[in-house]
């Protein structure tokens, strides 16, 4: 519990001195101080993990891996692997040949495309031939595209060499526990050495393989992210320990996702009445476990077959029939990608040179009253949560009613930091289905519970009033401004007007884990 | 003697590559075992491979026609519990 990530072995950054002024890490103590410099540089610019880079690049996933070698109590095997996607989604399983064709087509049409992931619908490494055939073909035909996969870890140690033979960029392992007694409550069985193994022994083997796999990948220099599913009463109190251990072993990010369990999912947890965490419980633990990096901690929320930029899904443009009809020149497409991505890098570089226009690294100096210099004065600069509606490019540029998700930022006097993403049903889909609008608006307001403000490009009269009534300040004054600059401006206005809540929001109670 | 895949199979492909007799094919609406080829894994593995990885209770029957993985044996969900929840969902 008492792990002090900021006291990294490189001397760390003294948080009491007002934070780090260096360009890339914003004004936050560097939670990645324990990682080698090369790894940190990779993460800071990574299209999946750097919050800022995330706005500029596109990723996609293909579903080529239908089988699984374990059972998780939150999975019903009819939908995609619950470790990596939204519940209730069924991906069309592609053969490796179909998948490669689709990736080449998408990458030819969306030149921002830089990462390809295999995420299901089962476990990629329980389908090694299919997964590796896809990787092999893409490494040959589109060597600029980075590859990633996510796995339950059981088959990982034996496949590390095979994975590393390709253009592998990062691997996500879902690790829910280190304690086999807890594991036995999450995993009813595994398939191991040609037998089905149940109970505590199954969990013991799985945990051992996950840890071996993590260590082997880190030793090979592959970025490893760890996901955990937060299951209240089962592993919630244990995840702080998981976080400490996996980070100590070199995982660069630990990402906590909520259990989502409903009877209609037909899962063990759903049918046995196991509850998921409340948004507040989740945010508090996520905040504690993710560290202070400005990172897209929810990249797993991409559906297994999603296509496109952040918050966008263009999979309908790339169905098997449409892809089959496309004529793709892979070499020309790669050259175009390289040109487009070089231009993106030039723009980002220019933006870094003029910090005020740069979403992501604005060192903000606020002149807020500080109660005492030597003692921490949390009440003077409370951390609050603010939601943002965005279509990408790092700007406040989405209409409130059109948003299918909100980015939730933790904002305080030192700046703004992405805390989580909150998916909602878009309530404004045109006049025809206004019947559901009321329910969707109520849902959106519930999803934003705990936020002090919500920033969007535009907002209607009705939702404005409802948000205000719910204690959430709507703001449409910062349309098309960079997100972080807009957030700090709103924070400043609200602080000046004395409208910040005196009590910090739940997520502000940071515990190091 | 042979095993059999019946309704309930979700076509997850897990069993197919494991069969030592190449008896399983990806058919619709669900996978099938060729009874003429299935050896019940005798002499190859201690446990029949298809039924040892299949995640779906009741999807694979043994030679007597009994489910190898009866209700509740894999998920731990008591069958009564599932039936009650399903009735409740239908009633909504
Ligand atoms: S690893 Fe994924 S596919 Fe396999 S049981 Fe768990 S959630 Fe389901
Ligand atoms: S019992 Fe063995 S031989 Fe028969 S179908 Fe299953 S895996 Fe194949
Ligand atoms: S493992 Fe079971 S569910 Fe999966 S394809 Fe084979 S019989 Fe069907």
Polypeptide structure, described:
The complex is a heterodimer of chains A (513) and B (92). Chain A is α/β, with parallel strands linked by helices and 513 residues long. Chain A is built from 15 helices and 15 strands. Chain A has two domains: 37-317, Alpha-Beta Barrel (TIM Barrel), CATH 3.20.20; 364-509, Dinitrogenase iron-molybdenum cofactor biosynthesis domain (Nucleotidyltransferase, domain 5, 2-Layer Sandwich), CATH 3.30.420.130. Chain A has helices at residues 37-44, 51-54, 96-109, 128-141, 156-164, 180-183, 199-219, 239-248, 268-272, 279-290, 320-324, 330-353, 437-447, 461-469, 483-496; strands at 58-62, 70-71, 113-118, 146-151, 168-174, 189-192, 195-198, 223-230, 253-258, 307-308, 384-388, 405-412, 415-423, 451-455, 473-475. The model of chain A is unreliable at 1-30, 292-304, 356-379, 429-434 and 503-513 (pLDDT under 50). Chain B has 92 residues and is an alpha+beta fold. Chain B has one domain (1-92): Alpha-Beta Plaits. Chain B has a two-stranded antiparallel sheet. Chain B has a two-stranded antiparallel sheet with strand order 2-3. The longest helix of chain B has 13 residues, at 79-91. The radius of gyration of chain B is 15 Å and the shape is elongated. Chain B starts with a strand and ends with a helix. At the A-B interface, helix 9 of A face helix 1 and helix 2 of B. The structure holds iron/sulfur cluster (3 copies). The site of one iron/sulfur cluster has 15 residues of chain B, from helix 1.
């Amino acid at each position: 519990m008492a792990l002090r990530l900021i006291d990294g072995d490189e001397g760390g950054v003294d948080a009491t001195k007002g934070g780090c002024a260096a360009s890339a890490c914003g004004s936050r103590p560097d939670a990645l101080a324990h990682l080698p410099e090369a790894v940190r540089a990779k993460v800071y610019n990574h299209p999946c993990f750097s919050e800022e880079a995330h706005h500029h690049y596109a990723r996609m996933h293909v579903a080529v891996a239908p089988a699984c070698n374990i059972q998780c109590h939150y999975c019903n095997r009819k939908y995609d692997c619950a470790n990596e996607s939204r519940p209730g989604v069924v991906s069309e399983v592609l053969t490796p040949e179909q998948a490669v064709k689709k990736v080449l087509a998408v990458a030819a049409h969306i030149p921002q495309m830089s990462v390809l992931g295999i995420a299901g619908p089962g476990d990629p490494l329980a389908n090694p031939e299919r997964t590796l055939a896809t990787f092999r073909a893409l490494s040959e035909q589109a060597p600029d595209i980075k590859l990633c996969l996510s796995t339950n870890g059981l088959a990982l140690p034996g496949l590390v060499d095979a994975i590393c033979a390709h253009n592998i960029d990062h691997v996500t392992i879902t690790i829910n526990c280190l304690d086999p007694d807890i594991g036995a409550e999450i995993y009813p069985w595994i398939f191991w050495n040609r037998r089905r193994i149940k109970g505590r022994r199954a969990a013991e083997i799985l945990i051992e393989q996950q840890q071996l796999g993590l260590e082997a990948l880190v030793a090979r220099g592959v970025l490893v992210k760890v996901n955990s599913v937060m299951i209240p009463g089962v592993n919630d109190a244990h995840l702080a320990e998981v976080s400490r251990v996996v980070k100590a072993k070199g995982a660069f990010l630990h990402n906590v996702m909520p259990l989502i369990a409903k009877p209609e999912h037909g899962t063990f947890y759903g049918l046995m009445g196991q509850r998921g965490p409340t948004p507040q419980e989740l945010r508090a633990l996520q905040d504690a476990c993710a560290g202070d990096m400005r990172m897209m901690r929810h990249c797993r929320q991409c559906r297994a077959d999603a296509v496109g930029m952040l918050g966008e899904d263009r999979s309908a443009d790339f169905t098997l029939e449409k892809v089959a009809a496309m004529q793709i020149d892979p070499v020309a497409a790669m050259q175009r990608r390289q040109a487009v991505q070089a231009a993106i890098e030039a723009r980002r570089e220019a933006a870094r040179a003029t910090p005020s226009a740069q979403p992501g690294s604005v060192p903000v100096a606020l002149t807020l009253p500080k109660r005492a210099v030597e003692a921490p004065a949390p009440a003077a600069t409370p951390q609050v949560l603010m939601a943002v509606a965005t279509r990408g490019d790092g700007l406040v540029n989405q209409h409130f009613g059109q948003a299918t998700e909100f980015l939730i930022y933790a904002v305080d006097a030192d700046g703004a930091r992405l805390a989580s993403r909150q998916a909602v049903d878009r309530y404004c889909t045109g006049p025809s289905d206004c019947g559901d609008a009321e329910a969707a608006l109520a849902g959106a307001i519930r999803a934003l519970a705990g936020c002090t403000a919500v920033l969007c490009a535009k907002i209607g009269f009705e939702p404005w009033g409802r948000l205000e009534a719910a204690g959430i300040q709507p703001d449409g004054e910062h349309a098309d401004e960079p997100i972080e600059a807009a957030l700090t401006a709103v924070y400043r206005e609200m602080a000046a007007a004395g409208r910040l809540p005196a009590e910090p929001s739940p997520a502000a109670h940071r515990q190091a884990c | 003697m042979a095993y059999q895949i019946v309704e309930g199979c979700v076509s997850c492909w897990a069993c197919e590559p494991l069969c030592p007799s190449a008896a399983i094919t990806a058919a619709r609406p669900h996978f099938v075992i060729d009874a003429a080829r299935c050896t019940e894994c005798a002499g190859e593995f201690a446990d029949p491979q298809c039924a040892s990885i299949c995640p779906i209770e009741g999807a694979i029957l043994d030679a007597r026609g009994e489910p190898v993985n009866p209700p509740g044996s894999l998920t731990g969900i008591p069958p009564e519990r599932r039936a009650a929840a399903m009735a409740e969902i239908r009633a909504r």
